[in-house]
Every structure is written in C-alpha cells, then in structure tokens.
Amino acid sequence: MIHIRNKEEIEIIRNNALMVTATLTEVAKFLKPGITTKSIDEMAETFIRDNGGVPTFKGYGPRNNPFPASLCISVNEAIVHGFPSDYVLKDGDIISVDCGFYRDGYHGDHAYTFAIGSVNQETLDLMRVTKEALMLGIEQARHGNRVGDIAYAIEEHTAIKHGYGVVRELVGHGVGKDLHEDPQVPNYGRRGSGKRLKAGMVLAIEPMINLGTREIATLDDGWTILTADGKNSVHYEHTTLVGKERGENLSDFALIEDAERNNSELNTGHLKKVIVS
Ligand code: MG
Ligand code: MG
To answer: Does 273 reside within a domain?
Structure first.
C-alpha cells in the first residue's frame, strides 16, 4: 500500500529528514584523514540521541544479524550498508554515509558521499553525475507521473549518458512510519511504467552508481554491498515529497555542502565540481 501523507505527517517527516541533514552536516565538519569510521558513527549517534531521535538503522534487519550501528558507512568500493569499523580514513578515499532519524512515529532517510582529501578525477566525475542524476529523478517525482519516470531519468543520466553501472539489486522506497514502504523506486527502468505517483507520497530516492560494472558482491557480514570489480561506487539520497509540479526535497544538501566547504581537510576542487546549483 502506498501512503498519501497529510500536512501534519509531512511536517514530521520533513523535520526528521532535516535532522538527518543536520547529522550529515556534523559528519561533514568531523571528517578528516586519520579518523576511524567508528568514531564518525559514535559522534553521529550521540548527536541523534541528544536531539531526541532514535537512529533508525541501529538494530534494523533480521533478528539474528541486525545492523550494528547508527550510520551505514561505505568506503570506496563499498556501495551501501557498510559497517563503521576501525578502518582509518586516508587521503583519496570516498565515503558514502547513510543515516536514518526516527522521532514522533516517522523516519527521515538520506545519504551523501564525501571525498576525503584529493580524490581522483574519474571518481569526482562519478560523484557529480550521480548527484545530478538524483536531482533529475526528483524533478520527475510529480503528481501523475510514474515511478518509471524517476527511474529512467536516473538511468539515462548515469548508465546511458556516462556508461556507469547502475545497481539494480537495491532500490529507493517509500518512507514514513516504516523505513521501507511501497513503492520500490529503482534507479533504472522504462519511462511511463510502474506505479502512478500522487501528491503527498514521500519517497527516498537514492541512486547507487558504480564507476565500472553494475554487478555487486556481499561481504561475509551479510550486509556490506561491494562492487564486483572493486571500483568505486557513489550513493546520494533525499527524502522527497511528491508534489503537484515537481518533487520537493525534505532533506537538504546545501547545509552539508557548506560544512564541506568550510572543512579544509575535504577536497575543495571536488566541491566546485560536485555542487549542483
Ligand atoms: Mg538511506
Ligand atoms: Mg533509503
């Protein structure tokens, strides 16, 4: 069942999506080479709880193997669902940080890929194009369109135009009282296909785009998804409200981008190229 959210529900989801933005903004201030990914997660969990939220991801999933942390932190060839760990960030890494914030009965869910120091040009291009593709997908999130219009806009800009690998096994989704609700929102597909979009639906739109093959592998931890060829992968996600004219981001990249810009340890060349105005 696909929910249409009323004004009050939308405002709660907006607040929670913006709390995810605030958490990712704290991450952007905190990042530098030499820190462990576990330290990022600990900082974020404290921030979420201090703000009256519950980290959605901690304990999520099957009872015999729940996700162990507040953030998914996926480094380089890790696509999504990476565990925070003792891994020490180094110059040239990229990390995709995914965060959920639960409060007042609803979830916010969004994600951002950060460059640590000097990242190679082909990866910077992948980051820029993936961010652009997310925005193109969101433009299609309007009343009367179909899920396939979002999916095609993302695939067209990434796989068709740039030859990147679009991950198919993992998809975007409705978000609200549950983290993952209907409909599924793939990052590839045919225009005009799939479920009809209506104003008031809330979707997590989240392209996961690989530099090389779209094929994936799963680590023994049962969660971490990697590229099969070991090349880098990028993940950006917004909590998005389906609108009458176009999709509206409930989460906000601008605050994260400002914090990146002010953090001299992050690559400023990357920012000039990646920010989509
Ligand atoms: Mg997410
Ligand atoms: Mg999501």
So the answer is: no
- Residue 276 is assigned to a structural domain of this protein: no
Q: Which ligand is nearest to the CA of 185?
A: 2
Tell me the CA–centroid distance for residue 185 and ligand 2, in Å. Answer: 10
**Residue 2 resides in a domain:** no
Kindly give the interhelix angle for 7-30 and 253-262, rounded to the nearest 10 degrees. Answer: 10
Nearest partner of 209 among 227, 185, 223, 230, judged by Cα: 227
Q: What is the pLDDT of residue 43?
A: 98
Residue 277 has pLDDT above 50, yes or no: no
Q: Is residue 99 part of a domain?
A: yes
The pLDDT value recorded for residue 273 is 53
Quick: pLDDT tens for 89-126: 999 999 999 999 999 999 999 999 999 999 999 999 99
Taking alpha carbons only, the member of 88, 166, 103 closest to residue 130 is 166
Determine the structural domain holding residue 236 and report its residue range: 7-266
Distance 198 CA to ligand 1 centre (A): 22
pLDDT band at 269 (very low <50, low <70, confident <90, very high): low
* Residue 95 to residue 90: CA distance in whole angstroms: 11
Alpha helices (H) along 95-158? 121-139, 147-155
Between the CA of 209 and the centroid of ligand 2 the distance, in Å, is 14
Q: What is the 175 CA–ligand 2 centroid distance (Å)?
A: 8
Q: pLDDT tens-digit profile of 33-68? A: 999 999 999 999 999 999 999 999 999 999 999 999
Instruction: Please give the distance, rounded to the nearest whole angstrom, from the Cα atom of residue 236 to the centre of ligand 1.
Output: 8
Instruction: Give me the number of domains the chain comprises.
Output: 1
Closest ligand to 110 CA? 1
Q: How far is the CA of 86 from the centre of ligand 1 (A)?
A: 22
Q: For residue 179, which ligand has an atom nearest its CA?
A: 2
Q: What is the CATH number of the domain that holds 58?
A: 3.90.230.10
